[in-house]
Amino acid sequence: MQVPKASDVLANDLRERILRGDFPSGTALPPERELVTQTRMSRTTVREALRILEVQGLVVIKTGRSGGAFVQQPDGGSVASSVSLLIRGQQLRLTALLETREAIEPACASLAAKYRTDDDLAAMDAANAIVGDLSISLDAFLKANVDWHLAVATASHNELLTGFMTALSNAIYSSTENTAFVDEDVRKTTFRAHKTITDAIRAGDPAAATRRMTKHVHGYAEAVVQVEERTEIDIAE
Fold it and tell me: What residues contact residue 43 under an 8 Å CB cut-off, 6+ apart?
């Protein structure tokens, strides 16, 4: 029988207390010295436990006189970070990402049609205006494209979906920076597709938003697979 490390036991206990709300977001955990006294564990063990929580995104460790381990509740960014690590660690193929995106993004569009705000619509319009500017560089187009898709996910007001889409979008577009694929016709088609989807979301029509997003992401996936010879995924750290 494997005996868990003391640092893991302490990290698990503190994690449960954080998630339970014993330590509200923004507050500091007890100082290292106090944790050592309370737990009767070594300072090294306590520091290792806090480092585990930091890696998991549950605390931010600050140094200096007013430093310490400050609690932060997990959010969509935590989901995105975890999914990005999974993608890189498992060396998932590009086709797997595209398939996942086809499953998730129409749901984002449907929820966005139900819950979008005026600010959400403004973010979509602003991103797509940049997408439609044929004079911008490939990098600027890809960034604006990602921004639009993330704006749709954000408009769903579902942090899990937003986190997944953040990781998926960054992985997909960093793996398809291909001038042979993203030509002027692709840019025009992308702009028009985004506009029709945004129109459905603005009109509060989940069925139309789902249908149009499904067509958009499926068409994109087919085009990428035909042109993109690389199958590996390269995500910047």
Answer: 32, 33, 36
